[in-house]
Amino acid sequence: MNLQFPELMRTQPYVDGRWVQCGRSFAVNNPADGGKVADVGDADVPLAESALEAAAAAFPAWRDRTAAERCRLLHRWCELIVEHQEDLALIITTEQGKPLAEARAELANAWAFVEWFAEEGKRVYGETIPAPGTDRRIVVIRQPVGVVAALTPWNFPSSMITRKAAPALAVGCTFVLRPASATPLSALALAKLADMAGIPAGVFNVVPSSASQAIGRLFTESPRVAKFSFTGSTAVGRELMARCASTVKRVSLELGGNAPFLVFDDADLDAAVAGAMASKYRNAGQTCICANRFFVQRSVQDAFADRLAAAVKALKVGPGTAAGVDIGPLISTEALQDVDALVRQSVAAGATLVCGGRPHALGGTFYEPTILKGVSNDMPIAVNEIFGPVSPLIVFDTEAEAVQLANDTPYGLASYCYARDIGRIWRVAEGLEYGMVGINEAVLTNASAPFGGVKQSGLGREGSRYGLDEYLEIKYLCLGGMQQ
């Protein structure tokens, strides 16, 4: 990697304001060619424990700073992210694989979360409540929960971090992060910029590690951790949530999705196709909120399928650093095998390939952008989260059927609806059992909007003023003896 600011290429854990040398390391590889990018220091449980200790020690002083002081430091962190966004984007693309244009878009989201919460942290308001008598006063205040521990995924290795860390730091919490072992370099680069911004030692710590289960157990069971935040699969989230019960700590979970994309007969089909492309094929389909099942009303299914196929066939597949590339590699060989198995199993069950349907001729972990027709809601491609560039098309006849099919899943993260009739839009949006509904819009992530799901897609919200509440405790003060 040829970085303009080589200091961003950090390969050791960042604990209590220091870069810690480790006795062992693990390799970070470029998914586009399999080549090794770097060897990263492999934090063990004792080092992660020391990071929690540092965060606990730093908490009182950080909590007691004024909101304005914390705001200024977060703004400086944001400015440095913006200043070095080209280097940060190259790091993302190199370790994760997405095209540079998408990496830049992720960085825009990453610094937007820091900017938003820097300001919102100054608006942690309390309230007074009318008391039952004149001899007392009732006051409610909100205070930071304490040490926050987080596990973040590989698909958005920068924005997933700032979406959690920025609100925590803004309200006065301290933070310990274990990033995904496939993409730790982005996290360590953010730590370098946090250090340059003047965020005090112990406030923001990063412990990359290949020991995911051991670190996860520490974070969920340690009494030092007041709040645990995780983004990842539902299966892992269930286990982590159960472990958090041992200390009854606060939990935020952003888990799996099976997003429906509903196209009604009154939809603007060109807009629907554009939305489908933006949702489904971003990051090669490796997005928790990307469309997973396309429900298309029977009268427009052929027209929609034809237009979508034309757009999908025009996509350029290749390394994320190459010019004009739309689809990069999948993160690993295992990921490619999982996607290919879902496609093959569904074709065997009766689905028909419109285009794609196999590993790409480029080899490695590249997969052809794919469309399947004749899919039913019980086929493997519809039941499972695909996490690949595959669009399964399912036909429906009535509005009620579309909503029923869309809700026929244990997941409830994101959903999408394309229609023009205002009554239909309201009915469908209210009927969809999802935490987020995109109505004639497929790009949902925004720092000022609440991101999160229902059912087995998680707990809590990230982004917006509601995301700030995840890191605050409510305290009730009853003042007696107020009468003279």
First-residue to last-residue Cα separation:
73 Å
Average pLDDT rating: 97
* Major beta-sheet overview: 7 strands, mixed
Beta strands, count: 22
Portion of residues in beta strands equals: 15-25%
Keywords: Oxidoreductase
Active site: 254
GO molecular function, one term: succinate-semialdehyde dehydrogenase (NAD+) activity
Organism: Desulfobulbus oralis
Topology overview:
Elements: E1 14-15, E2 18-19, E3 25-29, E4 36-41, H1 45-64, H2 67-83, H3 85-96, H4 100-120, E5 127-129, E6 137-144, E7 147-151, H5 159-171, E8 174-178, H6 184-197, E9 204-206, H7 212-221, E10 225-231, H8 234-244, E11 250-254, E12 259-263, H9 269-280, E13 291-297, H10 301-313, H11 333-348, E14 352-355, E15 370-373, H12 380-383, E16 390-396, H13 399-407, E17 411-412, E18 414-418, H14 422-431, E19 436-439, E20 454-455, E21 458-459, H15 464-469, E22 472-479
Parallel strand pairs: 7-8, 7-10, 8-9, 10-11, 12-13, 12-18, 13-16, 15-16, 18-19
Antiparallel strand pairs: 1-2, 3-4, 5-6, 6-22, 11-21, 14-15, 17-20
Helix pairs in contact: 2-4, 2-5, 2-6, 3-4, 3-6, 4-5, 7-8, 9-10
